[in-house]
Write a structure and sequence with these properties.
The protein is of the alpha+beta class and 159 residues long. The chain has 5 helices and 7 strands; from the N terminus they run βαββαβαββαβα. It is globular, with a radius of gyration of 14 Å. The model has no long low-confidence stretch (mean pLDDT 92).
Length: 159
């Protein structure tokens, strides 16, 4: 239920949320979105900026970002149930460069049901707590979605 996308055959660029979330977008309307440690490129006004360390967006606000042609270069994007109040003091200190971002089943924002980590415009890590969402994601991306644990075993030296 933890995936990494390295190639961009189904996406224009890393991490384009409209393309990454395409197979599961309709399932995500009941969540709020927590975004932190962001670096991005966009050509239009968005409900995120470089003035704040983190953002908590409702679905309509996040949909503006989703519908845009924005590239998330670095950052953590998490879907959190609407009835959960995320720990803002923790969220504001999180980093996409944290080694836990690369660990299977380790969520930087514990309340997340879905976590996307954009890593230097070259990797998109997507973690799920919901098997159904994970299955839809994998079915859509097929061989482009690599198992994060297997990727780590093959490419990341932990010694």
């Amino acid at each position: 239920m933890n995936w990494i996308i390295r190639t961009t055959k189904k996406v224009k660029f890393h991490t384009h949320l409209q393309e990454v979330l395409k197979p599961i977008w309709d399932d995500l309307t009941i969540y709020q979105w927590v975004l932190t440690d962001l670096d991005f490129i966009s050509d239009q006004p968005l409900p995120i900026n470089f003035d704040e360390d983190y953002f908590v967006l409702d679905h309509p606000e996040f949909e503006q970002l989703y519908q845009s042609n924005t590239q998330i270069i670095w950052g953590i994007v998490s879907a959190v149930p609407n009835n959960i109040e995320p720990d803002i003091s923790l969220i504001s200190r999180l980093s996409a460069e944290d080694s836990m971002a690369w660990e299977s089943n380790q969520f930087l924002i514990q309340e997340s049901i879905l976590e996307i980590i954009a890593f230097d415009s070259g990797y998109t890590i997507v973690k799920f707590k919901d098997q159904n969402l994970s299955d839809k994601f994998k079915e859509y991306f097929q061989e482009q979605a690599l198992d994060l644990q297997k990727f780590n075993e093959k490419y990341i030296d932990r010694t």
